[in-house]
Amino acid sequence: MKRLFKWIGILVLGLIALIIILAIALPSDDTEVTADGEDTAVAEDAATEEASDENGGEETSATAVSVPGIGDQVQVGDVAWTALEVSTTDVLTADNEFTEDASTSGQFVQVRVRIENTGNEAKTADDSVIQLLDSEGREFKSYTESYSYIPDDELIFLESINPGMGKDGMVIFEVPADASGFQLKVGDLDMFGGEEAVIDLGT
User: Fold this and answer.
1) Model pTM?
2) DSSP assignment, residue 27?
3) Which domains, from first to last, does the chain contain?
4) I want to staple 72 with a disulfide (CB 3.0 to 4.6 A). Which of 1, 32, 68, 95 is the partner?
5) Model confidence over 57-66: pLDDT tens digits?
6) What stretches of 11-101 adopt beta strand conformation (E)?
7) Which helix (H) or strand (E) holds 14?
């Protein structure tokens, strides 16, 4: 009888030892071992960190891209545009004594620009390739009577600009009183072109 109890004790101790060994050797329920021996949880953490780094890089890159502003030169085709100054008023003073001042229920936006010809052929400055945009996405063409309210030395549109040369001038827009968030859209001055760029006027 004593020998029987001895063998039973040995079997119980063996079972307990086997259970302890299996508990240590087998992975936990929430961790899956991959074919190459790497824990899935570790692999997933690494993938998450990598994706986070990539997303962070994309966000940084997107943030770095900004719209050029006042004083920044913008290349559009063979033409370099620079917005030099912007101002608003509700009355335009005529440049001569024979023209009456112009008033509006909205506002006149006056933008001084520089146009430089960086190509190899003469180009004609044309105000049809320059428009004013506002924060609501509205697009405004230049004021039709602008020539009466711009000093002669700043009347540059329809003038020829030779290669390597530039001209400073003014363009005027009439817009609603509540318009704001202005941007200047400029083109390449090519008859069959179509390149455009936007300059933030900061108003």
Assistant:
1) 0.67
2) P
3) 2-64 (no CATH), 73-200 (2.60.40.4170)
4) 68
5) 444 444 456 8
6) 73-76, 79-92
7) helix 2-25
